[in-house]
Amino acid sequence: MTAVKKRTASAAKKSAKQSKVAAPAYRVAEKYSSTSLSLEGIRKGFTRADLRFDGVDHSQTTYEARVFLNNTNASDKTPTTLDQGFAGSFHIFGHGGCLGDVGHCEVRGPRRPFDPRPEHPLTPVSKIVVATDAIRRALDKGTTVTVTVIPIVLSGTKLCDYEKVLKFEKVSVIAYQ
Amino acid sequence: MANLTLRPSIESLELAPDQLQALRDSYGKMQALRGDDNRSWVHQAGLHGFPQWMCWHHGRIGQGDPLPYNLFLPWHRAYLLYWENFMKDQNGQAVLPWWDWTSDTSHNIGVPASFSQPQADGQPSPLFSGPVPALLSDPPRQTTRFPGSPDQLPTPDQVENLLALTSFVDFTAQLEDIHDFIHGWTGGMDPNNPDQGGDMGNVGTAAYDPIFWSHHCMIDRIWYLWQLRQGVNNIPDDYTDKALAPFGQVVNDVLDINRLGYEYVASQQVLTTAGPA
Fold first, then answer.
1. Which residues of B, range 55-94, sit inside 8 Å of A by Cβ?
2. C-beta neighbour count of B129 within 10 angstroms
């Protein structure tokens, strides 16, 4: 978990609704809850606030990551409403496990300076959840926030790990003034 | 206008029997070609995921670049155009239709009828499934789908919110997220095998499913609609000379769809009468 960040960005004033996808009868993987994160660096006048997940693995299943703030008891059955701390979802289109030979899906970084190809296709990615209302609500109630993520598998293959679906490096709160 | 391809929605294609038949004919012929023929379904679908893995998703860093860039939209635009040319090579009347997963019909039935019926005219429908080559120890087979509930599909309001975004980087990230969901929704999980989902649900085999092409046509159309509002050339400057392999184009080549020779139509009515003998 990184420290709270804030920045201005006129281009990011418009907040898009997050996809509110109802829970299907799919597999639910191991959930994640962060440690408590201070929001003291965030001023209340922001026009948009995002949760940014960096270093997200996308080598396995395709899934919805349902994100809740200050609701560590959240599950796949929890209503996706603001009063439950629901902030939004992000989705990962997974590669479905390795279909190559040994080493095929091994991401070796950083990339070599004279290798003309772009980075390995399985380089971990960043995902954004526009969570303006949920972060405003958290700020109205206090100065800290915990982030809970419920991974709900939408699709996968027999090569996939269905338990540890959600793997990422860090999550940040980003407020735009 | 003679050379401009008008891409219709699947729903309007289904009201035009000749066009629908041309699409079936084209896909059927591509699927019948041997996989080692580079005009074949198997060869062209294999560019995306298994075995060639050339597709672009999310941001990555290229040689000498300080920051990641995301060629998801331009790469798939070039891929669709390349694909559509192979379609027309098999049947000159065939056009790529877009699947409007926000429409009332989609929210009622999910995958369009013409793509969810196993048979057409008493034969296996080439819109229902496509051939997949041998994967690891699995033999060649046909694609499968286990789509979710239609009421989970994105709404027109969600697309409208995307079109209001002013930054390309923001827009492409949020559109790609909806794209990711549709892949998972369409592939789904086999109720009889909890460890196996449908082919649209993973990067490796998604492009072998015929609905893949119409899903990405919808994504490309949304980008086009966004360009109409926010500018055709609204993309970071450092993107424009990035190569779109293996199509022999750079990003700047694919920004204007009219220069590429196609257009999206909301609805189409064709009235034809005979000329002088």
1. 55, 57-63, 68
2. 22
